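ugh ok fine here u go
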Amino acid sequence: MKTHILSARHAAVTLTCAIALMSLTACNGDSDATKSAGGSTPSKAAKASPAAEPNGIDKLSMKEIYDTGMKTNAEAGSFHEKMTREGGSSDLRLSATGCVGTVKISGKGSFQLIRKGNDIWAKPDSTFADGMNSALGENAFSTAKWSHGTPSNALMEKLASWCHNEQITAPDTLDASTKLTKGKVTTVDGQPVVPVVLASKGESVTWYMATTGKPYLLKRDSSRDDMPDVAYSDFAAAVDVQAPTGSVVEAPEA
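structure:
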């Protein structure tokens, strides 16, 4: 293994990579990022009413349940995703090409995030800005300005890695060799769901698919360090992503 001395800019990339891989804490959904995204307020989504008809997903095989839930979320075209784990969280609204919301990391601050196609904007709070500026050795990030870049900029690419648009454009499917178990129908926030569980070496991941109305994946609970807890809602609600208003500067190159 080769040992390299990090430059100030590479140190900032390293910091941002650590942030991108770290677990995340939910923030106020009515952030400047949401306001900049056309000021839209998505309607409460596609959560099935108590009178919704059973969809039969609980009668399917474990692979069919998993694949159906992932596919149904993707076919909605958009949703509200809240990701939570020890250390922080993200609160984002996603579509196939857009992403808007807030990421907060315990002890490291937070940043508002907008992605529209290949354009990425981020606006930090003071704690996050101070950490990035210290790593960079310059005052490149400001709480008063949006930083703009594209995936060709390593810093902005890592910040935008919170936007998992591939859930819509390329939904996951279960490998035939992966063994899940199916639990009994239960409820998530009053919605009937069927759980499928992956358990190994004392750790587990559980996916909950709606058994009435459309068979959305509503929730994932995980005890694994590499898989955060996720809650999904507001399916098919508009995500009107717009470039931010106010002062915008180009993000520094790593």
